[in-house]
Amino acid sequence: MTRSEIKIRSRELLKISIPMAIEHISVSLMGMFSIMLISFFVGEHATSAMGMVDAITHLILALFAALTTGGTIVVSQYMGRQDRSSAKRAGGQAIMLSVVASLVMFAVIAIFRDGILNLLFADAEAYVMDAARTFLTILNFSYPVVAVTLTVFGIIRGTGDTFAPMMISLIMNGFNLILGILLIGVFDLGVYGAAWSLTISKVVGLVCAGWFLVKRAKNLRINKFEYFKPDFGRQKAILRLGLPTSFESGLFQAGRLITQVMIVTISTAAIAANTIGFTMMNFANVPGMALATGAMILVGQRIGRGETQDVVKTSMFSVGMGFVFLMALGLLIILFRNPIFSAFNPTAETMEYLPTIVISYLLIAPFFWPASFVLPACLRATGDVIYPMVVSISTMFAVRIALGFVFGIVLGWGIAGVWMGMYLDWVARSAFFVPRMLRGKWKGKGIKDEK
Predict the structure, then answer these.
(1) What residues contact 269, with CB distance under 8 A and at least 6 apart?
(2) pLDDT digits (tens, 9 = 90+) for 185-219
């Protein structure tokens, strides 16, 4: 690849990825800030409770990936064809599906809240469980709001506009910051304050996203009721591409939840370390997540335009960019790790676990995370959704969970052993996804107009 081609590809990818990186940074920083506030003003038990509920939240949101990812892929491919009418109708159907699915999920959580917590975290201490119950009860009101907002974001991104979701996310997280300081730090509402600040800020985000999609979007405005009338053909197209991703994401998050259950059996300090570790991991992953979504959009538009010959170059270039950015950010975090750790106010027991898992993650991630997560995003954008689903589910249970249990519980390595299972999962995923992309097995799987 020539220097000029590298420059062109870098500009194209970064133009679409940088706004998402800024968005992810704001989300990660707000998550870190909430954990810091809870750690300082409430204590380790509340930090552990937030980590437990956060694992459930990721699982719930993963189930809506069918609508977010499916909507993004379908809209991006229609936009590549310059078929705006179909893109608008597909977007409207994705939103309606997200409304129905999220309300069903809200009812399930409301009815079975205690059973879910007791099933997953029976070994947690009573006061940790009480805090988790409170947090989940309030946060449940935010799940339908978040589901619809993420679907709208996916539609907007599918048009190539990543700036608007970034700005809305910044507004939303600004509200969360202000409310968190007031409710947790000033009014001393603890877990209640954290939950309500998150929920209210999500409502603000939905209002802004809806207003933008109807009134201000330049590339695609969904502003007529006819776009929301049931269109089973387009719903089928969305679900055909999105359901495998939803199933994959759901089981993937279920696997993460199982590893969380393993850590609960170790100690409250281990739960807190895992919560802080994943919070820092999410921040360190910002470049990779942004590049994965950016590459997915670019690949989807190329498929829509029939430019299949460029898909492999775009995908592998994105993996290389992921390595560069993850390595640079990881080394920066390692350099300033001590003041970052101190900001979370960890106990001495928590600090026994924290440096090992965070530093090991930052050193290993650049080599395996991009290939194991950017490439499947690109494969999905081509319409090849079954293969990534099968690989991700298989390696999650056969490698991450099985080896995490062996290393962490059987051999007694604790939380470090559980995270070692995660690293080996990345290695296995990369070994499957790289050949799949290079051999072109994804060709001919793009969207078709469903009737």
Answers:
(1) 44, 347, 349, 350, 352, 353
(2) 888 888 899 899 989 999 999 999 999 999 988 88
